[in-house]
Recover the amino acids of this structure.
């Protein structure tokens, strides 16, 4: 079931993915621009959802696209589904980043969760709420964070999420359940601080 | 468990379509308690959703990406040309370094090798050293001088091998000064050719510059394995080979090869002296030997048991076995008696002695031909 669904997504692309890939391999500026325009916002939003920091999100997203070019040059990288590759790579880079951050003793979790983009005029309640949720989210496992980011951050369907995560749909169903359950529990715990 | 997950998914879809949590849970009363927190969390998760990046962010990163791409393009094209340029340069540098090292570290070896001859184990070192010196001599004039020096060295080596009576494979260059049948002479060295000798396709004449490769033989000659014509203008030692000018006592000019003498050992003998090649040769003493000729083979005759080289000799009279002669000449550095002049005593002038057998007189008369009677 999932395979047909995946193909459906690639064919839904408005521009020609194959010729875009060819252009990317040749480092053709027009192709690069087209792919960027198509996917940058989406990837950025994913990364930003995971990391809650605009600057870092920008850097990482940028890095993901560079990696795309470099992988294609080495005859690696995506053969068809560019978005899938971008999302998977973004997930890996974010995970690496988070791992590195947690190793640094000076940086506390609350610091890393600082939301610089929050409107200062937002209601205090919401801010606190947001803060609590984000703090809780940050404590989820990378897989849990990933599934939530894809399902609720990006709004991808179960099937699409399953394809990006390279998991079966049923596995994603179970995962999203557990992720949400943990999130809720953690929010409750955070709220008690 | 699956039912729970399924139900959750259905509820999530309904919430997506706008329903609120309570309404959705209404349909699943038995799971409501379990699902409520989950659904609430999902709402919060959705609320965390991020806005699309600002135009600034988009433009900035687009430019960054394109710039990176152009850098990648440059790197793709540039390395090829750089690679082409640096590889031979690197090789040349490495070679230079190796040679410089050899220069420094192997001077003792080179010194030891400098007097070696073909057949010695260190001889290859000598040749390599010479080749290297040539390679690194960039000035054309100096290089030609050096080449000449080395060609002379090749000839010296051959003569030294003759003296030592050693056989070895040799390789030298020179001018053909004589060709008589299978016996040639190249720059003062006797070279024998055979049916097996590989000779240049083009005509090799007297006066041609040739490269001779062959083996030293017992009779102080070289058996040529190959004789190759050298290109015009080859710089070769110009040896004065007296064969060409037995009557010409002029040391300077050589007919046909019109060039200065390379090395003149300054002989004192009256007649033409065969050019000697060693710089520090003592001057040959002129001697006269008289006696009957007991044999004549090639260019050698035996008088009083002494083997004499008559190839350059001025012969007065009819020289044949049995005649009595007075031979003037000298012993060369090889210990060979080189005859400069032969006077056949039993000529028509003195017909009496011809009938007499001269075998009795074995002593060396020494001087004039008057001392027939003892």
């Amino acid at each position: 079931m999932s395979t047909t669904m995946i193909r459906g997504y690639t064919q839904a692309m408005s521009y020609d993915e194959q010729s875009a890939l060819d252009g990317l391999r040749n480092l053709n500026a027009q192709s690069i621009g087209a792919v960027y325009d198509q996917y940058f916002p989406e990837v950025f939003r994913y990364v930003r959802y995971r990391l809650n920091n605009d600057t870092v999100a920008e850097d990482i997203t940028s890095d993901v696209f560079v990696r795309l070019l470099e992988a294609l040059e080495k005859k690696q990288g995506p053969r068809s589904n560019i978005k899938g590759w971008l999302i998977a790579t973004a997930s890996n880079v974010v995970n690496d980043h988070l791992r590195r951050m947690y190793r640094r003793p000076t940086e506390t979790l609350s610091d890393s969760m600082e939301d610089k983009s929050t409107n200062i005029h937002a209601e205090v309640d919401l801010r606190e709420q947001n803060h609590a949720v984000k703090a809780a989210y940050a404590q989820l496992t990378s897989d849990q964070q990933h599934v939530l980011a894809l399902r609720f951050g990006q709004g991808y369907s179960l099937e699409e999420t399953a394809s990006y995560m390279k998991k079966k749909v049923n596995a994603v169903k179970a995962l999203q359940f557990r992720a949400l359950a943990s999130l809720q529990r953690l929010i409750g715990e955070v709220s008690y601080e | 468990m699956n039912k729970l997950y399924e139900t959750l998914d259905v509820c999530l879809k309904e919430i997506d379509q706008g329903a609120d949590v309570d309404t959705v849970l209404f349909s699943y009363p038995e799971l409501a308690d379990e699902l409520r927190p989950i659904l609430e969390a999902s709402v919060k998760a959705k609320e965390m959703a991020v806005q699309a990046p600002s135009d600034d962010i988009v433009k900035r990163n687009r430019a960054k990406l394109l710039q990176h791409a152009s850098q990648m393009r440059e790197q793709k094209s540039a390395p090829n040309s750089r690679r082409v340029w640096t590889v031979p340069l690197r090789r040349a540098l490495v070679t230079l370094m190796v040679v410089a090292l050899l220069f420094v570290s192997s001077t003792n070896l080179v010194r030891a090798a400098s007097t070696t001859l073909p057949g010695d184990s260190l001889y290859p070192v000598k040749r390599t050293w010479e080749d290297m010196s040539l390679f690194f001599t960039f000035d054309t004039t100096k290089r030609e001088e050096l080449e000449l020096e080395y060609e002379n060295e090749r000839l010296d080596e051959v003569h030294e091998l003759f003296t030592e009576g050693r056989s070895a494979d040799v390789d030298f260059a020179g001018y053909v000064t004589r060709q008589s049948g299978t016996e040639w002479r190249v720059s003062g060295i006797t070279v024998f050719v055979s049916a097996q000798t590989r000779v240049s396709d083009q005509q090799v004449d007297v006066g041609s510059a040739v490269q001779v490769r062959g083996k030293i033989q017992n009779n102080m000659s070289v058996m040529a394995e190959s004789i190759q014509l050298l290109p015009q203008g080859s710089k070769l030692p110009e040896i004065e080979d007296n064969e060409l000018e037995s009557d010409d006592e002029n040391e300077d000019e050589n007919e046909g090869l019109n060039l200065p003498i390379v090395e003149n050992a300054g002989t004192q003998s009256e007649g033409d002296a065969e050019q000697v090649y060693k710089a520090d040769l003592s001057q040959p003493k002129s001697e006269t030997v008289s006696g009957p000729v007991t044999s004549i083979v090639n260019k050698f005759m035996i008088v009083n048991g002494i083997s004499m080289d008559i190839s350059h000799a001025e012969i007065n009279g009819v020289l044949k076995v049995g005649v009595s002669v007075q031979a003037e000449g000298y012993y060369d550095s090889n210990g060979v008696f080189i005859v400069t002049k032969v006077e056949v005593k039993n000529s028509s002038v003195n017909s009496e002695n011809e009938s007499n057998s001269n075998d009795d007189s074995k002593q060396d008369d020494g001087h004039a031909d008057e001392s027939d009677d003892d």
Chain B is about 40% helix and 20% strand. Residues 244-281, 348-374 of chain B have pLDDT under 50 and may be disordered. Residues 76 and 130 of chain B are 45 Å apart (CA to CA). The helical segments of chain B are 2-16, 21-26, 29-47, 55-105, 107-113, 123-135, 140-164, 351-355.
